[in-house]
Amino acid sequence: MTSNGAVLEVRDHHVSVEGKQILNGLSLTVPAGEVHATMGPNGSGKSTLANTLMGHPRYEVTGGRIILKGEDVTDLPPNERARRGMFLAMQYPTSIPGVTMVNFLRAALKAVQGQDVPVREFRERLFAAMAVLKMDESFARRYVNEGFSGGEKKRAEVLQMSLLRPAMAVMDETDSGLDIDALRTVADGINAMRGEDVSILLITHYQRILNYVTPDHVHVLYNGRIVRSGGRELAAELEEKGYDWITNAIDAEEGARV
């Protein structure tokens, strides 16, 4: 934890992908136990931010630092970030044929904690988390994301998060492709995790998940940096007005400085 109580600090971050600059001096602080929502139009850098936080090798950091619980993790690989408490719920989860959910989840928990969890304790934790997400116990015997619907894949991501209890959970458009019932169920799983030991960054294009998961702060991302921050009311204003009212104002401000 940093001296200011932040679990995550992104400091003046610059990131490029295949030679194209995507993030342009992005800074963000997420204190312990808070839920922050990052919104923005397509191409603003939302998924780049998510992948960079988790250390995807395709994303080249050209400036700035990522501080997790007081430690600089900018140059650490994804597995080391995970061990230190970072988690990414992916927008497009990958299928792993031949590996059951129960084996995958137990291996992930061991990798993060550094030791096996007793079978009885693991099963109790697993089935309690599955009950919150309205998953039948047979789900645990299925192969990871193999033949899953979009809603099942997103529930599986939240299930992983529930078991691992990361210090910093980054959720990249977890609401995309969900019908209203699945959205509510996923939101219930997220809300069940809220507490002082878990901070959450919800990255989303729409505000609808914020009808069920109330954020402490909302940030608007545009041209690779955060251009507006506010409370829940900012998301409601974006829903009403769209992004143009902000992006046009930012373009005008930048044009005036030229």
Short account of what is shown:
37% of the residues lie in helices and 29% in strands.
Our Rg estimate from Cα atoms comes to: 18 Å
In the CATH hierarchy, what is the superfamily? P-loop containing nucleotide triphosphate hydrolases
At the fold tier of CATH, the topology name is Rossmann fold
Write the H/E string, N to C: EEEHEEHEEHHEHEHEEEHH
- Low-pLDDT parts are none
Strand content: 25-35%
The protein's oligomeric status is single chain
Give the number of domains: 1
User: Average pLDDT across residues?
Assistant: 91
Notes on the protein architecture:
With 258 residues, the protein is an alpha/beta fold. It has a single domain (6-257), classed as 3-Layer(aba) Sandwich (Rossmann fold), CATH 3.40.50.300. The protein has helices at residues 46-54, 78-83, 101-113, 119-132, 150-164, 180-193, 232-241, 244-257, and strands at residues 6-17, 20-31, 35-39, 59-68, 71-72, 86-89, 96-100, 143-144, 168-172, 199-204, 217-222, 225-230. The strands form three sheets. A six-stranded mixed sheet has the order 6-9-10-3-11-12, with helices on both faces. The protein has a four-stranded antiparallel sheet with strand order 2-1-4-5. Strand 4 and strand 5 (71-72) form a beta hairpin. Helix 3 (101-113) packs parallel to helix 5.
